[in-house]
Write a structure and sequence with these properties.
hpI Integrase, Chain A, 16 helices, Integrase_recombinase_N, DNA-binding
């Protein structure tokens, strides 16, 4: 370990790393003159890696978070440059992710999130779950591999960590089964509409749940989408086909069928907001219209809060039915916008829609990802097991002593 570490954790934008810790003389640096980067220190090299993801905010934020945690841990806690980390150091870091200590230095005091320029900001809001730990290591392994490929580092110490045996991918669990989805729709349908404010709220709730569910969209896709992204063309049968153009994860574009039901709901929502029934290609009205200012897209957090309020209020309505509904209400309380995307995929897959169609509608790269939405076969397996695989204690008790057949 090198000299005394620097004292405090700060976001990388404001972090000042002394020369002895900035990696210009890191033990794992590549050969002199062999780097394809202009970066001469670890922080600049990490920034060069991150620049590949600058056009996708959610990915950039996620990757910066993991790189920042490792860089800060190395220089603040270990007193070593990132480019001097060894296999043994990364074993310690893996344990650190599960329990970031000292908590006062690393973890938000309230477990909440603060702006990056707030003095209360910390790299962690609490210990990471096993899934989050694994995701962090995957991201960092990709970063190290890139730095090696760029000639900045000699080798990738992350690659030496023992990989857990591959397990069968679990089914998606963060989705609403049909019974809970019906509770959400029931709540939306009974919303009061006596005043203009109530009418606007009810119209938004109905459109939000319809759009997320029928199109299987991500939060960012809904937040940035415009009405002009809808288009129609003539089908082979001579009838109009409506489609929705979506710019998705990683900037990938996809076109998703818009059913007559969705177009009808679009017309209903537009009329409620004083707009013509159908949009034209130049219509820059946001997909979800703010209550104030019809031509300014809502932020991701605002759309998130809007759909969370639907789930929360639906949960309160269910909870009021009696204590026996508490568990189902709690499940609704946990739901978020992404649950609706999973719900859309799950209901399509279990409803018999071809997996290739579901894949393309949701914008998945791999059919393996889409197959995680198949729940019907597991439901069937559960029913069969419960029905046919039993202990039958009651039969044992009723039998006369000595009347049991021999083992077979």
């Amino acid at each position: 370990m090198s000299d005394t570490p620097i004292a405090s954790v700060q976001p990388v934008e404001s972090l000042v790393i002394p020369e002895r810790l900035d990696g210009r003389h890191g033990a794992n640096r590549g050969a002199i003159g062999g780097s394809q980067l202009s970066a001469t220190n670890d922080l600049d090299a990490v920034r060069a890696w991150l620049s590949n993801y600058a056009d996708t905010k959610t990915t950039f934020d996620s990757y910066r978070k993991e790189a920042e945690r490792l860089l800060l841990w190395a220089v603040v806690q270990l007193g070593k440059p990132l480019s001097s980390l060894t296999h043994e150091d990364l074993l310690l870091f893996r344990a650190f992710l599960a329990n970031p200590q000292p908590a006062a230095r690393w973890v938000s005091a309230t477990g909440g999130k603060y702006p990056r320029d707030d003095a209360r900001w910390r790299p962690f809001n609490g210990p990471l779950s096993p899934a989050s730990q694994q995701q962090a290591l995957i991201i960092l392994n990709g970063m190290f591999t890139w730095l090696v490929d760029a000639g900045y580092l000699r080798g990738n110490p992350m690659a030496l960590l023992r990989q857990r045996g591959k397990r069968a991918a679990p089914r998606v669990t963060r989705y609403l089964p049909v019974s809970l989805w019906d509770e959400v729709k029931g709540f939306v349908e009974q919303l009061p509409q006596d005043t203009a404010v109530q009418q606007a709220y009810a119209a938004r709730c109905r459109w939000l749940t319809t759009l997320f569910y029928l199109q299987g969209m991500r939060l960012s896709e809904v937040a940035t989408g415009k009405m002009g992204d809808f288009s129609r063309r003539l089908g082979a049968d001579g009838r109009d086909q409506w489609w929705l153009d979506i710019r998705g994860k990683g900037g990938r574009e996809r076109i998703v069928p818009a059913s007559p039901e969705l177009v009808s709901e679009l017309t209903r929502y537009r009329k409620a907001n004083g707009l013509p029934s159908l949009p034209g290609r130049t219509d820059d009205t946001p997909l979800v219209i703010p209550f104030r200012g019809k031509h300014r897209c809502m932020s991701r957090s605002a759309v998130h809060d809007a759909i969370k309020s639907v789930f929360g209020n639906a949960a309160d309505r269910l909870r009021a039915c009696g204590p026996e509904f508490a568990d189902r209400a709690d499940e609704l309380d946990r739901a978020s916008a992404h649950w609706l995307r999973h719900t859309s995929g799950s209901h399509q897959a279990d409803g018999g829609v071809d997996l290739r169609t579901v894949r393309d509608n949701l914008g998945h790269v791999s059919l393996n990802t889409t197959s995680l939405y198949l729940h019907e076969e597991e439901d069937k397996r559960h029913r069969e097991t419960v029905k046919r695989h039993r202990m039958n204690w009651e039969a044992q008790t009723a039998a006369e002593p000595g009347s049991m057949e021999s083992d077979h």
